[in-house]
């Protein structure tokens, strides 16, 4: 399962960018091409969309943007193009509307009816309430941390303590969305060192599951 791809942006137009990864060009449709600079090296989170007529790859700046996109496309009546439009005003605004149950604001987005907006809230309100609570808790924790400003984005604090319960729950929800089984998820969570960065933990969990001999033949 591909979660992200790294490479150099060699071209872009209004709707997509082309990323060169070891001599292979990948065309990625993105939310806003203005956020990508030609010539820069980037890690871009990806999602492959496929139906009977076409296969398209979508690119995202961060993992939460990808998760929201994937969630939206599970709703009947929302395709990938509508999901991208929903993300144009920022994933933060989108998940706030969902968490607050504000279907009226959601229905103001292009191509989203009131019926679909209500369905989005029904399906995902509790999930995004939990995510926002976790983000707030992490921000407060980082604000009070003696390491603030001294440690990089993917730092791991040495500790004998297992993952924070809220972090573990969020990681579990994310891995379920990605299609992993409970046994695989439990194995990864029990093996990971403490870290508050969800994207880093997801990447590490996927590596652990992929490298575990007992899971290699499992879907």
TrEMBL record:
<dbReference type="InterPro" id="IPR000085">
    <property type="entry name" value="RuvA"/>
</dbReference>
<dbReference type="InterPro" id="IPR010994">
    <property type="entry name" value="RuvA_2-like"/>
</dbReference>
<feature type="domain" description="Holliday junction DNA helicase RuvA C-terminal">
    <location>
        <begin position="167"/>
        <end position="210"/>
    </location>
</feature>
<feature type="region of interest" description="Domain III">
    <location>
        <begin position="168"/>
        <end position="219"/>
    </location>
</feature>
<comment type="function">
    <text>The RuvA-RuvB-RuvC complex processes Holliday junction (HJ) DNA during genetic recombination and DNA repair, while the RuvA-RuvB complex plays an important role in the rescue of blocked DNA replication forks via replication fork reversal (RFR). RuvA specifically binds to HJ cruciform DNA, conferring on it an open structure. The RuvB hexamer acts as an ATP-dependent pump, pulling dsDNA into and through the RuvAB complex. HJ branch migration allows RuvC to scan DNA until it finds its consensus sequence, where it cleaves and resolves the cruciform DNA.</text>
</comment>
<keyword id="KW-0227">DNA damage</keyword>
<keyword id="KW-0234">DNA repair</keyword>
<dbReference type="InterPro" id="IPR012340">
    <property type="entry name" value="NA-bd_OB-fold"/>
</dbReference>
<dbReference type="InterPro" id="IPR013849">
    <property type="entry name" value="DNA_helicase_Holl-junc_RuvA_I"/>
</dbReference>
<dbReference type="Pfam" id="PF01330">
    <property type="entry name" value="RuvA_N"/>
</dbReference>
<protein>
    <recommendedName>
        <fullName>Holliday junction branch migration complex subunit RuvA</fullName>
    </recommendedName>
</protein>
<keyword id="KW-0963">Cytoplasm</keyword>
<comment type="similarity">
    <text>Belongs to the RuvA family.</text>
</comment>
<dbReference type="Pfam" id="PF14520">
    <property type="entry name" value="HHH_5"/>
</dbReference>
<comment type="subunit">
    <text>Homotetramer. Forms an RuvA(8)-RuvB(12)-Holliday junction (HJ) complex. HJ DNA is sandwiched between 2 RuvA tetramers; dsDNA enters through RuvA and exits via RuvB. An RuvB hexamer assembles on each DNA strand where it exits the tetramer. Each RuvB hexamer is contacted by two RuvA subunits (via domain III) on 2 adjacent RuvB subunits; this complex drives branch migration. In the full resolvosome a probable DNA-RuvA(4)-RuvB(12)-RuvC(2) complex forms which resolves the HJ.</text>
</comment>
<dbReference type="InterPro" id="IPR011114">
    <property type="entry name" value="RuvA_C"/>
</dbReference>
<keyword id="KW-0238">DNA-binding</keyword>
<dbReference type="Pfam" id="PF07499">
    <property type="entry name" value="RuvA_C"/>
</dbReference>
<feature type="domain" description="DNA helicase Holliday junction RuvA type">
    <location>
        <begin position="4"/>
        <end position="59"/>
    </location>
</feature>
<keyword id="KW-0233">DNA recombination</keyword>
């Amino acid at each position: 399962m591909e979660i992200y791809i790294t490479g150099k942006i060699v071209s872009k137009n209004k709707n997509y960018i082309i990323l060169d990864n070891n001599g292979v060009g990948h065309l990625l449709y993105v939310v806003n091409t203005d956020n990508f600079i030609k010539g820069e090296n980037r890690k871009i989170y990806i999602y492959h969309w496929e139906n009977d007529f076409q296969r398209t790859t979508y690119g995202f700046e961060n993992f939460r943007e990808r998760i929201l996109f994937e969630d939206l496309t599970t709703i009947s009546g929302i395709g990938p193009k509508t999901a991208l439009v929903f993300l144009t005003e920022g994933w933060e605004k989108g998940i706030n509307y969902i968490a607050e149950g504000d279907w009226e604001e959601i229905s103001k987005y292009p191509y989203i009816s009131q019926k679909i907006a209500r369905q989005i809230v029904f399906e995902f309100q509790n999930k995004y309430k939990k995510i926002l609570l976790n983000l707030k808790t992490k921000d407060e924790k980082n604000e009070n941390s003696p390491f603030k400003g001294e440690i990089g984005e993917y730092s791991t604090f040495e500790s004998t303590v297992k993952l924070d319960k809220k972090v573990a729950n969020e990681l579990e929800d994310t891995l379920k969305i990605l299609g992993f089984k409970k046994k695989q998820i439990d194995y990864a969570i029990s093996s990971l060192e403490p870290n508050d960065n969800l994207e880093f933990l997801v990447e590490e969990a996927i590596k652990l599951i992929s490298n575990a001999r007992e899971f290699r033949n499992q879907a």
